[in-house]
Every structure is written in structure tokens, then in C-alpha cells.
Give the backbone structure.
Amino acid sequence: MIIRVSKEFDFEMAHALDDHDGKCHNIHGHTYGLRVTFIGAPIDAPGTPKDGMVIDFSDLKAIVKTHVVDIFDHALVLRDNSRFLGIITKENNPRLMLVPYQPTAEKLLEHMVAIITENLPTHIHLHSALLRETNSSYAEWFAADQD
């Protein structure tokens, strides 16, 4: 039987969308919510610590927290050619993260999915991920939609 298990994470992050035609071109922050859903068959290994689990929630938490949440939490994410560079540097903002894409919810989620996927045990698959930027705005990714 195939089961899906999910875990949610919250973190604070700031960004700016260079060339955006609205307020988001300014540096601003959000309380992001990331929900990840994994799919697999529960482990059938009576007498072992992971028996009956698709993935131990503590293992899932360690992967996502270490490789995504701890990296993005309280970071300022800017495109690597942002107009703010020179004004804002790693010296005056150690949590500055430069990325080669416009740091929209969609592109951030794409980046996070790649990071999570790289760090999963081989028997676990990422089914879906959702990155909530505000209470009413989010981006979603589904493995089934990929080529």
C-alpha cells in the first residue's frame, strides 16, 4: 500500500523582486510556510525502529530543516544581479543569499524541491510541496506534473 506523509515548516525570509511593477520591487519580508509531502510504502520490518513508517517524521524534519529551513530562515534573498548589491553586502548582512533567479514563490519552491530531492533516502519520493508566501498566496509543485 502506498501512503503519503506530510510535514509543515515555518520560517521568516525577506526578498525583493527586481523589475517588478508593484510594491514587491522593494525589499520586504514574509512568514513563509513550507509543506512537503512524501510518498512510499510503509517499511515492513517488525522489531526495527522504523517499522510501519514511510519515513520517520524526525528524519523528514532533519532533512528539510537542515537543508532548507535553516538556510532560508531570516535570510535576505536577492537575485545575483540585483540593484541592491553594493548597498547590501555579506559584510553588512551575513544572511544575504544571492540566487540566479527572480526570488518569487514559484522559483524559490523550485529551488527548495531540488534541494530536498537531492537529500532524500532512495526509498522515499517527494510527492508534492507547497510554499505559502502569505495566508492567501502560495505556489505548489507536484512530482506527477514533471516531465
User: Anything to note?
Assistant: DSSP finds two helices and six strands in the chain. The domain at 3-145 is CATH 3.30.479.10 (Tetrahydropterin Synthase; Chain A). The chain has a mean pLDDT of 96.
